[in-house]
Amino acid sequence: xxxxxxxxxxxxxxxxxxxxxxxxxxxxxxxxxxxxxxxxxxxxxxxxxxxxxxxxxxxxxxxxxxxxxxxxxxxxxxxxxxxxxxxxxxxxxxxxxxxxxxxxxxxxxxxxxxxxxxxxxxxxxxxxxxxxxxxxxxxxxxxxxxxxxxxxxxxxxxxxxxxxxxxxxxxxxxxxxxxxxxxxxxxxxxxxxxxxxxxxxxxxxxxxxxxxxxxxxxxxxxxxxxxxxxxxxxxxxxxxxxxxxxxxx
Length: 249
Prior knowledge:
By secondary structure, the chain is of the alpha/beta class. The chain has one domain (2-170, 208-248): 3-Layer(aba) Sandwich (Rossmann fold). It has helices at 2-13, 15-19, 32-57, 77-80, 94-106, 142-153, 174-185, 187-197, 213-222, and strands at 65-69, 86-91, 112-116, 128-133, 156-170, 225-233, 239-248. It has a seven-stranded mixed β-sheet with strand order 3-2-1-4-5-7-6, with helices on both faces. Helix 6 (142-153) packs parallel to helix 9 (213-222).
């Protein structure tokens, strides 16, 4: 799984930039102030998710259990712990999880656990009131990501919710898409790209992949999800980003 290796490299070398790709979050630039800002952005996002679900589904969401898929260093899993009895953070990178555990411990968060992910979610047991993922799936190739989304959805309890951020469309030209795919597959091209962009020479790529909304809608409906909503959210230039939010009946 090539992308797994790439994200472990991010976790080991530049974990905060790997989560939010702003130069101020690179390890070499990270300050106490910028780190506080990083985690404050997570609190804002978690509040946004609760407000969104309450608004669109006419509920007062009070989940007992929350799973944050692709939790990274705990930017969202940690504030989720203020809203649930138990939170599980899941990530493919052991190095990311090491940072997440230290961050949770520093903030005295005790109702949170972290586990390594795989496509079958073999380290995850039980069911969850809310399963969430943000700015993660675009970095996973579509075929794998579709499978993981459906496997996660199977772990939602009745009347529980999913909230998954995905890209559904790219406006890039065909030649640009072709060159980007080459960069993902051929490391020397990525190294050249890094040189041109004045980035660390061997820095791994961050793949950007789009998902099939129709495929996900049909398969989520088949396992009991109703009122699927694809809510537009701000995205990077050239891509349409949405939050896929749904309730299991």
